[in-house]
TrEMBL record:
Record domain ABC transporter: where: 8-240
One Pfam family in the UniProt entry: ABC_tran
UniProt keyword annotations, A-Z: ATP-binding, Nucleotide-binding, Transport
SMART domains the record matches: AAA
Organism of derivation: Rhizobium puerariae
Stored PROSITE patterns: ABC_TRANSPORTER_1 (PS00211), ABC_TRANSPORTER_2 (PS50893)
Name this polypeptide is given: ABC transporter ATP-binding protein
Family: Belongs to the ABC transporter superfamily.
Principal subcellular localization: membrane
MF (Gene Ontology): ATP binding
InterPro entries assigned: AAA+_ATPase, ABC_transp_ATP-bind, ABC_transporter-like_ATP-bd, ABC_transporter-like_CS, Oligopep_ABC_C, P-loop_NTPase
Membrane topology value: Peripheral membrane protein
Length: 319
């Protein structure tokens, strides 16, 4: 089963939210059944906007969100896991009520005993205990709350799971535990998911393919190991060099030189030209074409650079 974005979907999409106008444009992603697509980029690049659009929490002002339907014409069942496990759990509900809700909504089990048995199973699966079902969210730590959120998402038996910075709000030691749990669940349940993060080391652990976003655009997309072995976009190269191996605790939001321009007013031509060490005249006036690679990747750049070595060899930034 392949969930395919049609070409040109989300074209010129603009959406206002609390922090101003955020634009996501012309993003096309293909996520295969049982695979995880990682989406990485700096804060403000439009990752969360994209997640909200895909999940249906936000309506596109233009363009389309297309899912491949199954034989019966149904779209896949979605669940979402958010960054902040504090605000996403209702403090007046018991853990049992919280985890049981998607089971009830989607009528996945009938009868109180069967639902409770499923809740116990899910809590165990995420490393909690069935006795926790009687408690309230306030009685748990951040990491435990994220486990509850994961149990709730799994309760809906999602065919497509969206994880938006699921570990970014947690302590570093807890982040590793939650990532390990998610890895196990990925393998055991063959989940199909979109994993969003600003952290390239995290996405390297989690994703089969990685998409790199910059100012609302997908600038490169490739199988994970290929992206690290030979990135084709200068922004990807700089992100890789800024992310030390396994530094999953890194919270820096602007890991590379230069200010991120206002996403509401992206630079003309190539949106990355104000920070790109390779920028030439054409980059300042003309949007780069989308190119494909032999390894099954895509990138948008006027040049076709061999960036397989660290950016120590790059020219000094002209920005
Ligand atoms: Fe850099 Fe030009 Fe390529 Fe944009 S198109 S990434 S500015 S070289
Ligand atoms: Mg975000």
């Amino acid at each position: 089963k392949i969930y395919r974005r049609s070409q040109g979907f989300l074209e010129r999409l603009k959406k206002a939210d609390a922090s101003g106008t955020k634009a996501v444009s012309d993003v096309s992603l293909t996520v295969r059944h049982g695979e995880t697509m990682g989406l990485v980029g700096e804060s403000g690049c439009g990752k969360s906007t994209l997640a909200r659009l895909v999940s249906g929490l936000m309506e596109p002002t233009a363009g389309e969100i297309a899912f491949r339907r199954d034989a019966a014409g149904r779209t896949p069942r979605l669940q979402m896991i958010f960054q902040d496990p504090y605000s996403s759990l209702n403090g007046r509900w018991t853990i049992e009520d919280i985890v049981a809700e998607p089971i009830r909504v989607h009528r996945l089990r009938q009868g109180r005993a069967a639902i409770r048995a499923r809740v116990d199973e899910l809590l165990t699966q995420v490393g909690l205990s069935p006795a926790d079902a009687e408690k309230y969210p306030q009685e748990f730590s951040g990491g435990q709350r994220q486990r509850i959120c994961i149990a709730r998402a799994l309760a809906g038996e999602p065919e497509f799971l969206i994880l938006d910075e699921p570990t970014s709000a947690l302590d570093v030691s807890v982040q590793a535990q939650i990532l390990n749990l998610l890895r196990d669940l990925q393998k055991n349940l063959s989940l199909t998911s979109l994993f969003i993060t600003h952290n390239l080391s995290v996405v390297r652990i989690m994703a089969d393919r990685i998409g790199v976003m910059y100012l609302g655009e997908l600038v490169e997309e490739a199988p994970s190991e290929e992206l690290f072995r030979r990135p084709h976009h200068p922004y990807t190269r700089l992100l890789i060099d800024a992310a030390p191996d396994m530094d999953i605790g890194d919270r820096s939001l602007h890991p590379i030189a230069g200010e991120l321009p206002n996403p509401a007013f992206p630079p003309r031509g190539c949106r990355f030209h104000t920070r790109c060490p390779f920028a030439g005249d054409v980059c300042r006036t003309t949007a780069p074409p989308q190119k494909t690679t032999e390894a099954g990747g895509m990138f948008r750049c006027h040049l076709d650079l061999d960036l397989s070595n660290a950016s120590a060899n790059m020219p000094a930034s002209k920005a």
